[in-house]
Design goal:
The protein is of the alpha/beta class. The protein is built from 29 helices and 24 strands. Helix 7 (232-243) packs across helix 10, helix 17 (415-440) packs across helix 28 (681-693) and helix 18 crosses helix 27.
Amino acid sequence: QLGLDMEELEEIEEDAGLGNGGLGRLAACFLDSMATLGLAAYGYGIRYEYGIFNQKIRDGWQVEEADDWLRHGNPWEKARPEYMLPVHFYGRVEHTASGAKWIDTQVVLALPYDTPVPGYMNNTVNTMRLWSARAPNDFNLQDFNVGDYIQAVLDRNLAENISRVLYPNDNFFEGKELRLKQEYFVVAATLQDIIRRFKASKFGSTDSVRTVFDSFPDQVAIQLNDTHPAMAIPELMRIFVDIEKLPWNKAWDITKKTFAYTNHTVLPEALERWPVDLVEKLLPRHLQIIYEINQRHLDYIASVFPNDVDRLRRMSLIEEGGIKRINMAHLCIVGSHAINGVAKIHSEIVKTQVFKDFAALEPNKFQNKTNGITPRRWLLLCNPGLAELIAEKIGEDYVRDLSQLTKLHEFVDDDIFIREVAKVKQENKVKFALYLEKEYKVKVNPSSMFDVHVKRIHEYKRQLMNCLHIITIYNRIRRDPAKLFVPRTVIIGGKAAPGYHMAKMIIKLINAVAQVVNNDPTVGSKLKVIFLENYRVSLAEKVIPATDLSEQISTAGTEASGTGNMKFMLNGALTIGTMDGANVEMAEEAGEENLFIFGMRVEDVAELDRKGYNAHEFYNRLPELKQAVDQIQGGFFSPEEPDLFKDVVNMLFHHDRFKVFADYEAYVKCQEKVSELYLNSKAWTKMVIRNIAAAGKFSSDRTIKEYARDIWHVEPSDLKIPPPNEPRDAVEDKTPNGTTA
C-alpha cells in the first residue's frame, strides 16, 4: 500500500555482523531452533558498536572498514535500562573472618538490549539479550576529585570501549586485555541476570533471607559456546562462595551440574591460554578461585594416578614454563558435566587426541552433537523457488521436520521433477549473474558451472589448493585451446583476519590470478575467476542457492564441523570435499558415491606426519603442480613485482602445516570427475536430488533436540501457544515445566 518493495527494503537493512564465522552463525541458527522447538532459552552476548569489518578489495588487496551497523538505528532491539547491572574489574582481595572480599574495584555498567527471536509459526518469541557497556555517572569523579571535570567525562569512553568492537580473529587466540574484559563483561552481567531470574521464580525459595540453590541446576542450564565465556565457571563459584556463602563443595557441585562446554576447534593456535599476570591484575579473586579449583583437581588426579607427575602437568589448568598461563579449555572441562564436539569425527579427535587424559578420567562426560543449520533461513528465506518445489511434492511439514526430505527419494527418477529442480537452479544462477554484473561489472556465463568456495580465509581451509587448481585449468586451456572444456565460474570469497599476513597474501594471489585469467582472450568464457568482496550472511543467502559445486577442502582433521557445507547441500549444490568435519556425515547420509570425496583421511595425514611431509617430493613428481608453482614464484601473475608471492611459495615448500601439495593430485583428478558429470545435466540433477533428500539430519532442530535431551534435560514442546487475541485459559498448565537454557 505504501508503494514499497519488500526486497528493496531488505537490501537496505544492515547485517548484524556480531560474529566472525561459523561460531556466531551457529548461535543464530540455534536461537531460531530453540524458539521453534518451544524451549525457554536465552541467547546472551555483547552488543558490539562495530561488528566484523566491512571488506573492500583495492588493487587486489583486502582493506578493512569499520562496520558502523547502528548508524541508522536498529528497529529490532529494545534497551532495558531497568535491568542494568554492575560489572567489577581490577581491585584487590581482602580475606576476612566472614570470607574473601573483592574491594577497590572499577565498575562498568552493563545495559541490556533485547531482540525478539520468533519461533516458526508457533507464536513463541524468545529473547536474545546483548550487553552494552556504560560508565557509571560518578565515573572518575568519585575518588580524590582533582577538579578536571571535563577530562573525567571524556574518560567515560575508557569504560564504554568494552563493547565498542568485535575482535576479528577466527580460529586464532589474541591475548589482549580488552578481549579478556569483554569475555568477563558478558559473563558477569549474564550470571547476575540468571540468578536474579532464578530468585524471582518460585524455585529460588528463601530460608530466612538466604536463597536455597539446591534446585539451581534443575532450573538453569548454561551452554558455553567455545571457551570464550569460560570465566563464567569461576564467576559462578565467586557468587556462590563469597556472596551467597555456600560451602565450597556444594557450590562446586552445583556449578558443575549447571555448565556444559562445546569445543569448536582443535587448532592449537586457537586455544585460549590467558597469562596468569593479566588475570591477576584484572580479576584477582577469580585467579584465586581458579588456583583452588586446580589444586582440588590435581589432588584428585594424584589419588587416581599416584606418582604420575607428567600426567599432572598435562592436565593442570595452569601451564608452567615461560609465562604462566591458564588453559581455558581445561577449566571448561573440569567445570562442566558435559563436553561435546560438533561432528562425529571432531568429537572422536577431541576424545582420543586433544583431551585424551580427561577422557581417560571421565569418559562419560564426552559426547557428540553434530552441528546443523536452520532451514527457515537457509532454505525458505533464501531459496523460495526450491522450497516451494519441495512443498509441492511432500507437503509443507518438512520445514519443521527436515527428516521428511527423505520422501524426495521417490522422485529421483521423475523426469518432470528433475527438470523443475534444474530450472530453479538455473533461475537462481541467472539472478546471481545479474547481481555480479551490477556489483562487480563482470559478465559471467550463467550456463557455466558455478564453483563456489566461500568461508573465512585460512591456511587450513586451503583456498590455496583451489587457486592451484584454477591455474592448472588455465594452463590446460592455453595448451589446447581447441579442446572442449566444461566452462566454470570460480567464485571465492571470505574475510582474512586483519593481522593474518598469509591469509591476506592468499586474497591478493587469487585476485592476481583472476586478473590474468579473466583478461586472456584464449580463455574467453571457459574460465572466469571472481573474488567475492565482503562475504557475509546476506551475501551467502544470494550465492548459496546459485551454486553448483561446493568446495569443502580442508585438511582432514582440521575443520571441526563446517556449516556452509550443509547450506550448499540443502540448496542443491554438489560437494567436492575431504573426509573432514560434517562432510563425513554428509557422505554417510547421501552415500559416498553422491559426493566428490578425495584426498587424505585423518589416518593418512597422521602417517604423513610420522614419515615427514616433503613438499618438494610432490612438486618434482607432478609437472602441472610444478608449472603452477613456478608461475606464482616467477611473477607470471605479478609481472610488475615478480617476488610478490615469495612468502606464499616459501610457506608451501617449507612450513605448510596443511599439506596442500599432498592432496593436489587427488583434488585435480576429482575435479575432472566433476566436470565430466556436469556435462550430463540429468545425471547431475539426479545426484543433486539425492543430496537434498539426505540433508534432513543437518537441521539445527535435530541438533538442539539432542542438546535438550542429552545435556540440558528438557523436553522440546511442539505446542503452539495461542495468539494474543485468543483467551489463554484454553491451554493453561499444558506447558511442561522445565529448565531454562
